[in-house]
Design a protein that fits this description.
Metallo-beta-lactamase, Chain A, binds zinc ion
Amino acid sequence: MSQIKGTIVPVTPLMQNCSVFWDDEAKLATVIDPGGDAPRIMELVETQGLIVEQILLTHGHFDHAGGVVALNRLVAEKQGAAVPVRGPHEKDAFLLEALARDGAAYGIPEAQPFTPDEWLDEGGTARIAGRDFAIYHCPGHSPGSLVYVDAEARFAIVGDVLFQGSIGRTDFPYGDHDALIAAIRTKLFPLGDDISFICGHGPGSSFGVERRSNPYAGDGA
Ligand SMILES: [Zn+2]
Ligand SMILES: [Zn+2]
């Protein structure tokens, strides 16, 4: 069986963890949350000899989606065609529409609005580097936040839903603190303590460590 490989490219002034996963044999790559710095992401793609297969999003915030149009333009130049953009949940459409405004305000001037080729939703699966990830809708930080879980590999990509020792901020007009806590507790933690995750900012962790010690969503909160 071929190996899945991945790496994190911190992008944007917010040091967002853009991640790239690929199948070691086919070298087909999924770029997750290219918030900006598209040339740096393409540099990795070229260094590793990868073919970008799709762009996948956890949610619609500018630091995660602001580089999608620029990256896809570079992909089209190199590969001859742009690739499909999948996710987030359709409830984040208003954030994708506001990308030019929000990007300009927060130091990602290249951010441009777009409509994904496919909205995703809970119950479906996302194919990443040849593996199937189950999709969970975890609103609260944004209405359309999605979490991708490879149950077999015990690995999750959680975006800004959950962090090591913290949770996504909910102080937006559309934020919902209670919904976020409920999603973490009823959808993510029951999947198992041994699931490790990468998140949108800072180091990753595991559901078990966060269930035991997270001051916002853990057992003691
Ligand atoms: Zn966010
Ligand atoms: Zn973020």
